[in-house]
């Protein structure tokens, strides 16, 4: 369970000794993700997507989670097996995709630890930590880890996925109400790096617990 303020996400990893058909006999492993929000995760009840089909937002987020986590995986070392990360949002107050990536990495770490302990893999396939945080410009000021009120009124909103070594994996930036300069972008990248380093420290503590 990852809790970032009032955003709470349950992250679970499932190991399977198989890969999608397009990877069969390739020698490569696969990491993928599924994401969902419970009906009362938000202030007003949402209808269950299982009954109505996944929204475009849900599909986009779970693809992002999978892409982000794979950036820190040596798929040759993982071998031909799949790890699926399920991210279920119990309570949402902004930044659910970032929390899912950060918590999902811990679930992935624990799953890989199990494989290594069993001797199923020889070398550690996780090449680096992966964590994510939101940043934006709210009331004219750069802000780290936007909550829902800040996110809904931010002039600029962004999500930053980074490695533990400080390299960028993916950046999603949008001018919601005002354009932004390259200097402001640099400020937000600096804030994101600070936030990610704090998250990586929390990941290490959780994975070693």
Mean pLDDT: 93
Query: Strand fraction band?
Result: 25-35%
How many distinct beta strands?
A: 8
Indicate the CATH architecture: 2-Layer Sandwich
Distance between the termini: 13 Å
Question: In sequence order, what are the helices and strands, one letter per element?
Answer: EEEHHHEHEEHEEH
Instruction: Characterize the main sheet.
Output: 4 strands, mixed
Fraction of residues in helices?
Answer: 25-40%
CATH C-level label: Alpha Beta
CATH H-level homologous superfamily name:
GHMP Kinase, N-terminal domain
Family: Belongs to the RNase PH family.
GO molecular function: 3'-5'-RNA exonuclease activity; tRNA binding; tRNA nucleotidyltransferase activity
Protein name: Ribonuclease PH
Subunit structure: Homohexameric ring arranged as a trimer of dimers.
Report on the structure:
With 209 residues, the protein is α+β, with helices and mostly antiparallel strands. It has a single domain (2-208), classed as Ribosomal Protein S5, domain 2 (2-Layer Sandwich), CATH 3.30.230.70. Helices cover 37% and strands 29% of the residues. The chain has six helices and eight strands; from the N terminus they run βββαααβαββαββα. It has helices spanning 49-52, 56-70, 75-78, 96-117, 148-153, 182-208; strands at residues 2-4, 7-16, 30-37, 82-91, 130-138, 141-144, 156-163, 168-175. Strands 1-2-4-3 form a four-stranded mixed β-sheet. A four-stranded antiparallel β-sheet has the order 6-5-7-8, sandwiched between helices. It starts with a strand and ends with a helix.
